[in-house]
Amino acid sequence: MRALVWHGKEDVRVDTVPDPKILNPRDAVVKITSTAICGSDLHLYGGYIPSLKSGDILGHEFMGEVVEVGKEPGRLKVGDRVVIPFTIACGHCYFCDHDLWSLCDNSNPNAEMTAKVMGQSPSGLFGYTHLFGGYAGGQAEYVRVPYADVGPYKVPDGFSDDQVLFLTDIFPTGYMAAENADIEPGDTVAVWGCGPVAQFAIRSAYLLGAERVIAIDRVPERLAMARDGRAITINFDEEDVHDRLMELTGGRGPDSCIDAVGMEAHGGGSVDAIYDRVKFAAFMTTDRAHALRQAIMACRKGGTVSLAGVYGGVVDKIPMGAAFNKSLKFKMGQTHVHRYLPRLMKHIQDGDLDPSFVITHKLPLDQAPEGYRIFREKKDNCIKVVLKP
Ligand code: NAD
Ligand code: ZN
Predict the structure, then answer these.
(1) Ligand nearest to the CA of 42
(2) For the chain, is the Cβ count within 10 Å smaller at the N or the C terminus?
């Protein structure tokens, strides 16, 4: 089959690779009909997350048709049309039982190695390095889905791929970021970033009762899309973010602050930098990094800082004194996609939100390397790229 393969930093290619096979009784093989490129893929593309190997297949936002099932398929049948959470979960461990699916104890075969870096191991993820299990991703014609009796969610009739694809990651991720922001009626929520995840965080904050959302970025099309979602926007190239937030909130600061930027791209740095204190300090003073610092400094006393943006290593220069003395709460993590899927499908069915609004580019899988480039460079007004195998 054809698949998007990582060969090194900023070097991804579409190669012919062996077809995936059923390895375990609870596996399925899915023929991909749509797959997207995520901001998290840019961390891999830019070489920010260690433990990728040349030859690894990327991609964690995908959907398609079940073409093969193992001996214990559960409710899944050949021919089912499914969306697949990017987090892999066994469905039966302590964490799955507690609705904490991205922390599953059994789905990361490299748990021992990961625990050395993180203390304990989170779940396996598709296409996201050997720290998260080394699973082949879904920017491909076919993918093996482990624990397929637990994750894949059957798409109700009448919905296009474009309408449901983002249930695999960015809609639940934006939603969980908003839920983690502990929104109360009347609240003002500030969102750093206007990328795809942020766009869903903005709309989810309103679904969860925010009075007002303020969104921060520098890319004009992304700011415009945030305004379409009823956000007030701040262009951080043109205005001082902190001052403007204080002005908009009568000097008190937003009730909660969502970081939908993460550590990625722009300001330099590399995986090596994460392990080198001096280089890392330089990396952390670049613009991408200070979204989180700004969020901590601007958040009102007693407020909540919610992180959807991904962090891969050690973050330096976090103003802990401000966080402590303002009694801030922090919530974060990889999204518990399984938890949100039915709820968000219902929002789509009820017409509250059509997630396809975020798509700006559709390319054949063979043009995936170009897709990575334009998404990373934000060329050609690119906000979200969908690949069609
Ligand atoms: P993206 O890279 O397209 O969007 C990031 C946006 O942040 C860009 O529009 C950029 O211009 C903006 N930005 C950069 N520096 C900024 C700053 N200092 N202040 C304000 N805005 C700034 O990526 P995306 O797909 O929207 O993903 C966003 C983040 O969410 C990434 O870190 C990604 O890894 C993460 N993510 C997390 C999960 C999860 O489970 N928690 C899932 C998916 C994605
Ligand atoms: Zn993603």
Answers:
(1) 1
(2) N
The CB density around residue 243, as the number of other CB atoms within 10 Å, is: 11
Task: Please report the atom of ligand 1 found closest to the CA of residue 43.
Answer: 34
Q: Thinking of the domain 171-332, which architecture would CATH place it in?
A: 3-Layer(aba) Sandwich (3.40)
Q: If you average pLDDT over residues 42-56, what whole number do you get?
A: 89
CATH number of 2-168+335-388: 3.90.180.10
DSSP 50-76: S---TTEEP--EEEEEEEEE-S--TT-
- ipTM over 0.90 threshold: yes
Percent helix, strand, coil in the chain (nearest 5)?
35, 20, 45
Model pTM?
0.95
Q: Which residues, chain by chain, have CB under 5 Å from ion ligand 2?
A: 38, 40, 169
- State the chain's mean pLDDT as an integer: 93
Do residues 358 and 386 lie in contact, with contact meaning Cβ atoms separated by under 8 Å?
no
- How far apart CA 83 and CA 71 sit, in angstroms, is 21
Q: Does the beta carbon of 172 lie inside 6 Å of ligand 1? A: no
Contact between 2 and 389 (Cβ < 8 Å):
yes
- For CATH 3.40.50.720, the residue range(s) in the chain are 171-332
By mean pLDDT, which of 190-199, 234-243, 305-314 is the weakest?
305-314
Query: Contact at 8 Å (CB) between 141 and 31?
Result: yes
Using CA positions, which residue lies closest to atom 25 of ligand 1?
39
The ranges of the chain annotated as CATH 3.90.180.10 are 2-168+335-388
Q: 302 CA distance to ligand 2 centroid (A)?
A: 30
d(CA 261, ligand 1 centre) in Å:
3
Q: What are residue 305's DSSP bridge partners?
A: 257, 330
Residue closest to 371 by CA, chosen among 359, 381, 357, 361: 361
Beta-carbon contacts of 221 under 8 Å, excluding residues fewer than 6 positions away, are 360, 381, 383
Q: Report pLDDT digits (tens) over 119-129.
A: 999 999 999 99
**Tokens 């593309």 belong to residue:** 45
> Residue 199 CA: which ligand 1 atom is closest?
26
Checking if the pLDDT of 281 tops 60, the result is: no
Q: Which residue has the higher pLDDT, 280 or 79?
A: 79
Q: Per-residue pLDDT averaged across 179-193, rounded?
A: 97
